[in-house]
Design goal:
- There is one protein chain.
- The chain is of the alpha/beta class.
- Helix content is 47%, strand content 20%.
- Helix 2 packs parallel to helix 3.
């Protein structure tokens, strides 16, 4: 990879159309979005790619988002990768508690607008770029 300015994002999400939407929004801004349809595949992809950011859906069959998050944080290779949690709007309370307990970098609630997604990604990656 000779273009170091391209930021890689792994989107772990069990709805293919949500992955496509995120890929469309972020792809336009020059991000390289890799979609994983579930927690196990997502974790494997994160370990292989070591992306700049992970967008993580909490509600997934098999392995849920919290489990993926805990495994990422337990692994030296992946624990410093920022995570934005994507969750359904009904889970607000869990989300805020989870943020404080788990120290996730940010969260966005579905359904979200393109600008909301961009603002969150730029806040988290921009913070990482400047630090």
């Amino acid at each position: 990879m000779n273009n170091t300015s391209v930021k890689h994002i792994v989107c772990i999400e069990d709805e293919p159309e949500m992955i496509e939407l995120i890929r469309l929004i972020l792809g336009r801004r020059g991000f390289d979005v890799h979609g994983a349809p579930g927690g196990k595949e997502g974790l494997k992809m994160v370990r292989e790619l070591l992306p700049d950011l992970v967008l993580l859906d909490l509600m997934m069959p098999e392995m849920d988002g919290w489990e993926v998050y805990q495994q990422m944080k337990a692994d030296v290779a992946t624990r410093d990768i920022p995570v934005i949690v994507v969750t359904a709007r009904a889970q607000n309370i869990d989300k805020v508690l989870g943020l404080h307990i788990a120290k996730v970098d940010d969260y966005i609630a579905k359904p979200f607008g393109p600008q909301e997604l961009m603002d969150s990604v730029e806040k988290v990656i921009g913070h990482k770029l400047s630090s």
